[in-house]
Structure formats: C-alpha cells, structure tokens
Fold:
Amino acid sequence: MNIVLRLAWRNLWRHTRRTWLTIGAMVFSNTLLVFMISLQFGMYGLMIDNTLQVFTGHMQVQAPGYKDDQKMRQTVPDIEPLAANLREKFQTETIAARGWAFGLASSEERSYGVGIFGVEPEFEAYVSSVPGLIKEGRYLRENDAMEIVIGSVLARNLRVAIGDELTLLGSGRDGSFAAAVVNIVGVFESGVVDIDRNFAEMPLKTFQDIFYMEGAGHQVVISAATLDDAELLRPEVAAALPEGSNLVVHDWDVLQPGLKQAIQADMSSAFFMYGILVILVAFSVLNTQLMSVLERTHEFGIVMSLGLRPGRLGRLVILETALMGLIGLILGAIVGSLFTSWFTVNGLSIPGMEEMAANFNLPARIYPQVTPWTAVAGPLVVFLFTLLAAAYPALRLHRLHPVEAMRAN
Amino acid sequence: MRMLPVLTRLAWRYLWRNHRRTIIMLSAISIGVWAMIFMTALTRGMVDQMIKDGISVLPGHVQVHSPEFLDDPSVSNRIAIGDVELGRAFDSAGFKAWASRVKVPAVITSERESRGVTLLGIDPAAEREFSFVSYDDVEGRFLESVDDNGVVIGKKLANTLDTEVGKRIVLMSQDPDNEIADRGFRVVGLFTANMPAFEDSFVFISKKAAQKMLRIGDSTTEIVFLGDDYRNIEPTYELVKQRIDGSLDISRWYEVNTYLGTMLKVMDGFVLIWVIVIFLALSFGLVNTLVMAVFERIREIGLMLALGMKPASILGQIIIESMLLLAVGLAIGDVLAWATIQPLQGGIDISVVAEGMEMMGASSVLYPKLYWSDMILANVVVLILGFFASLSPAWRASRYEPVEAITKVG
Structure:
C-alpha cells in the first residue's frame, strides 16, 4: 500500500501546473461554499430568532382554527390559570398568556387602526423582546391598570407622548361594541417599521374587561432555550393541557409558515448554485484525470504486461485523485474559514440590502460564523464529486489491451 | 491579419485532435453558461413579478401626494386641489392613464370582527387599466361608477370578518378634524389577488362615497400616473412635474416603495456576480486545458517557430483556440438555456413555499424571464474574461526557444 501511495503522490506532481490548477478550482469553490454556507445558515438562525422573539415564541397554545382566522371568539378559556399551571408544571417562567384584538386608536389629532395585545406584564418579558425595547417611559406593571404601550411610529403618527390618553374602539368577543380610554405609559421601538406602526400592548386583565373576554385569551406563548428544546417540549405541553379541552399546540413553523418557507425557497436556490459550482469542479477534475490517464497509456501498457491488474491501476488513479481532492479540501476549508472569519470580525453589509434585510428581521450588518460543520460540509461534497469524476478514467483502464497500449505514445 | 484564416483553421483542428478533452471542456462551459442564464432568468422573473405586483398595489409609476402623506397617511395630509381642476390639468396631457383617489387607513367592522385595512376610494372606470383587481373576476360585481354605494373587499378578509356579498359592514376612519368618520356599506363584491396579503388589506369603495364619508369635498390624497413601462418612467415624471404645483411631493414608484427599488438594483448586481463566479469556476479548467494543449505539442510549436512562424502567430493561434472553444460552449449553453426556459414560460408553480415567497414580496407562480441583455452580458463577460485567462498559456507558448522545444522529450 505504501508503495502505491508513494507512486500516486509522485504521479500527481508530474505536471505541477496542471495539478495546482485543478486544486485551484477546488479551493476556489470550497472557499465560496464555506463562506456562503456559513453566511446562509447564520442568517437563517438570526431570521428565526429575531422573528420569533418579537411576538411568536417557540410555540403557542390556541383554540383550533385561531391560527388561520384570528377571530375574537376563538378563545382559550381561563387563560391565566392555564398559563400559571403550565409555568408550574414545567418549572419555568417563559410561558405567558395573551389576548389579541384589533381596534381603532384615536388621539386628539389622529386615528389609526392597531393590533392590541393583552399581556401579563410580569411574564411577557420572558417570551417577547418588546418589553425590553421601551424607548421612552416604562413597560406595563399592574395587570389591571388602564395603561398601554405603543410603537414609536404609531406614537409619531398619532402625535402623542407619554402621559397622553388614547381612545380605543373595537368589537368585543361577542361582537358587541368595545370602547375604553387608556393612558400611554411607554413607547417601544424595535426598528422594524411594521411592528412599530401597528402594535400596542396593554395588561391582560384590562384587555379582558374592555373586550368582554370573561377570563379568556387567545394564545399562551411558550419559549424554550433553543429550537431543539422547543421540539422536545411540544408533546409534553400538549399532554399537559386540561382534559377534554380542544386546545391545540402550534410550533413556530406553523405559526410563521412564511419564515420556514422563505428559508426553504432561499435554500433551494442556494443549493442550485452550489450544485453548479460542484459540477464545474467535477468536470475540471474529470478533464485532468482523463488527460493524466491518456498520456500514460504507454506506461500502463508496460506495467500491465508485467502482470499488474487493471483494477490495481484504477485504484492508483482513484488514489491520485483522492490525494488531490484532499489537498483541495484542506486548503479550501482553511482559506474559506479564514475568509469568512474576516467577516466574522468586520461584519458584512451589502449596500442597498438594508431594506431587504429588515423585511426578514435581519440587521443591516451581518457577522457570519464559521462552525466546524459549515467549514467542512461544502468541501466534503466537492471531495466526493471529485472521486466520482475519477471513476470514468479509472474504469476506462479495464478496456486497455497491454499490447496495443504499449504501441501508443 | 493575413494569417487569421489559417490560424483559425489550425486552431479548430487542434481543438478536435483530443476530442475527449474538448468535449469535457465544452460540457463544462455549456453547463456553466446554461446555469448563468437559467438562474438569471428565474430571479429576473421573480423580481419582475414582484415589481409588477408591487406596482399594481401602489399602483401608478409616478405618484403625487401631499409632502407629509407618505410618513403620516392621514386625510389631514390630502391634496388640496379638487378633481375638476385636476381633470383640466391632466386630461389632455397625453398620459397613458391617470387617476386620483382617496387612500387612507381605516378599520373595517362586521358584526363579528374588526380589522385594519387600507381604504381606497376610486373611480372604477379610471383605474380599470392598472388595478391589481381584475374587475371581471370579482365574485358579485366590482364598483360600477364613481358614486357607487357598495364596497368590494378581498375574499380572505370576507372570511375573517364572517361576511359575504349582500351583507353590511362598517368602515371607520377619521375626518380632517379628527372626528370619527364612519359609514355602513353593503358588500357588493369579493376580489381575489395574486398575493393573499392584498386580499387582507385593501378595501374598495367609490371615490364619491369616500369623499362624502371623510368630509373632504372633492379632494383626494393620491394622484397616480401610468407610464409605458416601469423601467422607463422619466418622461411621465417630467410631464407630471411640468403640470403640477411644486409644493406637492412627486415620487417615482421606487421612491414610494424603496424595497422594490433596491430589489431591482440588487438584482442587476447579482446577475453580474453570478456570471463572474461561474466563469471563475470554469476558468481553472479552461486554463488547464490550454496548458495541456500547449504542452502536448511543444515540439510542433518549436518546429513552426523554427520554420519562421512569428511568435505572435503562435500566441494568436492559442487564443483563437480558446475563443473557439468558448464560442462553441457558449452557443450550446445559450441554446440549452433557451430550450429549458421556453417550456417554463407558462409559469412554475412554487406554491409549496407561497407564504415564504410572500414574505419576500413575490407571488407563488414563478415566470422565468429571459432578457436578451442578460444573455448578451453572460456571453460577453465569458468571452472577455476568457480572453484574459488564455493570455498566460498563450504567451508562454509563443516564448519557447525553437531548438529547445524541438528537442524536448514529450
């Protein structure tokens, strides 16, 4: 084996330039793959986290059908005891009850429609980033105060400040007319205009009074430490729901189908591009190895007539390719990781992309992270295709007739 | 130059001397070029559709608002000019289409539910040409006149509100004095749209009904103009500018919806980067092939030089060989791309990821768009970069010492 390895290594360097050019193709593709994959999966993680932490959480307990229609009367009855129960059962704070309604908010000068959340002030901060985004004033405190916090764009459009009153008009759970006057105690700013323009939060008890909820709400939001934990938690939550209730537990990807599908759509177009890159490298290798086999027809003829089996020669060719591929893999992974690490430190921002990024709750500057997986996944695929590409030249050897081969030059 | 036909013929024959290598390289180039054009056509198609959908909602290639309206879309920030005067200014100006409308945020309430919507008070006749709602596909009927008393809402919204054609809903907004302005309307039609979000967020009533409800006389909040093509709106923009009061805000569509504007720009950049990346991946193989081709015939090259062929001719011959290879590869790739895009013109159904596409602002049917300019760009970039990539091997070939080259043992 040792001698075959040595032979393969020497054969590789017969044409230094050719070998390096082929390796160059691998390194180029590998570098791109490492960078793109690191960036891509880093972005997906950010997109998911940033989107879920605003309102959605990792899962929600809801009435059946609520997810699609969000109708007022699709409620979770006795929602606060239910949430308290779950908190106790799972020994965690990261579970909170909410109600949601739509209403017309009027100030002295302006009226705009807003989505109003009724939240448990004590627990909301564990499942949502909004309480931490208060820019002016304070977040909600008492569960039955006539208070409201609103987004910064909404505050600007309504021309209101902390301490002003806001009149709310809407329909209650039973379809009756609901109205109330509440005090603005805080303004939050997420930086995402759609969120800052369209939402307000008030204490759950107050919400229930105004909209005739009779103790009911619309969603129990549950956050887990990680996405993987969330997956494990879901069946347990489902099992912990009160007997005989028809409530359902929805995962984040059901609650935000757009998010998962945007990722899928992006992934399929990215994989198309990666596939093309890999195929092009494979062709490059195929070309090189075929040349290197063809030009050695004469010497292959000699060693075959001395008794060497074509299978052995085939393995030699594969081994040569594997060595070349290995150099490409290692160099590519290293160069790719270094290249990506530069952006890990300095960040990557594409001019003009800020707005697109905001659409997916992404910051304008992105810091891609190299993980062992992202550094090796792409190069490994390239390596495999490299070996595959060597199959044709290697198998061709079986058709070689020693005598004819020796006559070739 | 005299040598050109001979050199070309030589290059062509050399190319087919090692037909396996040439075929492999040709396959690689063809696949690369195919991928360049195919991928570009897909994304172009997507962005085109996004912009069309986006403009169809805005709609109007050039729009006029009161300066504060875009940030604070309230009826207080309306356009002070009445409809009669607007008609006098624009009717005879030669616009492809124009319309003034009332567009304000509002709350729609049924017996069961309330939702926030964008209320559009329109003249149905004026907007027929550029509305995203196709009037004939409306369940029930669309608005029929400028003082129609009905309301047309999206199917999805009707479902959320538990309402249907023939039932009544209430619209609430504010009048200029911030008094609540509300009125009951009978639902006369339900529309469907390309993107479900539109069905959720737009409500149509007639312009006169809107003006009466909001107590704004015959004024409106938005004037829109249509040009011939969204890519060429400057003439329309200039024409509007000449004919309207300078204190109003005149915007092009990509200034109103900056997301779509950047999309279009980012797309152009993406196409170029994609083409260059593919080319670079190809270039290693290309240079390699040339290096091999030169290496195999060092002795012949030496002989030619010894017989008096100028080094420049050797250089030219290698470059021509490379260009021929690329040209054939490009031709195959182009045809391949055209042949794969053509059958997909009817649209690719990607509704599996519809909601994800909607997040990007795209609809769930993808219509690939093959632009000649993109195809030409890909071809030109490949040829130019290919020329530079083949310079080095060609240069080396032309610098051989004849005697050394002839005696070199291959």
